[in-house]
Amino acid sequence: MGVLNVTPDSFSDGGLWLDHDRAVERGMTLVAEGADVVDVGGESTRPGAAPVPVEEELRRVLPVIAALAPHVRVSVDTRKAAVAEAGVAAGASIVNDISATLWPVAAGAGVGWVAMHLPADPSVMVEHAERYRGDIVTDVVEYLVSRAERAEEAGVGEIWIDPGIGFGKTAEHNLRLLHHLDRLVATGWPVVVGTSRKRFLGPLSSLPGEEPAPPSGRLEASVATAAWAVTRGAAMVRVHDVAPTVWAVRLAAGAGAGAGGARS
Ligand code: HH2
Question: With contact defined as beta carbons under 8 Å apart, do 236 and 37 qualify?
Fold first, then answer.
């Protein structure tokens, strides 16, 4: 799943793809690089991001979804039912839902649905992470399974679960979730993982004594964690840097399968 943020303020690519033609071109580049799905979003969820009115979010994403949908599977990344509905009408066939509340939209429209774990609103999720004391893996599994079961009862035929890496979680929480990804996979629901360029990778992408790496310096860690997730059973990874991730994931999957009998 390649990320396409049609926003002025996303944490790593804000403003780059706000122009319609550039956004569509970027989406087609993600396809050429090997993305199976392009995830189009019009509202940043980074801590402190300004809320986006429905009309503005629709204005950003609908023309881009309509232009890309004939060429690739498109997901609409939103927390708003109205945007999800209009996104599907424009051609999206997955609702990527960080709020894990929009299954009725997916059920009504007969499209796929990604349920992500979000323990608190993004505006307060950093404080929430510091206060959190429970077993993060158990909580995330229970939360996602209960949402997935409700969606299944409502008639959603394609349900994905996503631990919400970086959402209301400390670096240790994120690493624990990655380490125990097999527990999410064991639920039987296909798992999506999004680590790409996220903040917890900053200190892991710099030398001792250096400042944490900025988003542009987190490529290797992003690719490594995506490959890790796939080898642990994730069915999809949500990434900004599609080409290097596809190479790494193919290699990791091939190595896991004994490289298909290759001799050299
Ligand atoms: N992460 C972001 C946004 N949407 N959706 C899913 N399913 N999983 C994720 O981990 C996820 C997501 C945040 O990343 P990004 O879109 O790059 O940033 P921003 O929210 O600032 O636009």
Answer: yes
Query: Is this structure's pTM higher than 0.90?
Result: yes
Give yes or no for residue 232 CB within 6 A of ligand 1: no
Q: Report the alpha-carbon distance of residue 117 to residue 100 in Å, rounded.
A: 7
C-beta of residue 14 within 8 angstroms of C-beta of residue 5: yes
- Residue 165 contacts residue 174 (beta carbons within 8 Å): yes
The third-level CATH classification (topology) of the domain covering 2-256 is: TIM Barrel (3.20.20)
Concerning whether 46 is annotated as a catalytic residue, the answer is no
pLDDT exceeds cutoff 70 at 47 = yes
Compute, in angstroms, the gap from residue 44 CA to the centroid of ligand 1.
8
Mean pLDDT of 201-216: 94
**Mean of pLDDT over the chain:** 93
d(CA 245, ligand 1 centre) in Å: 17
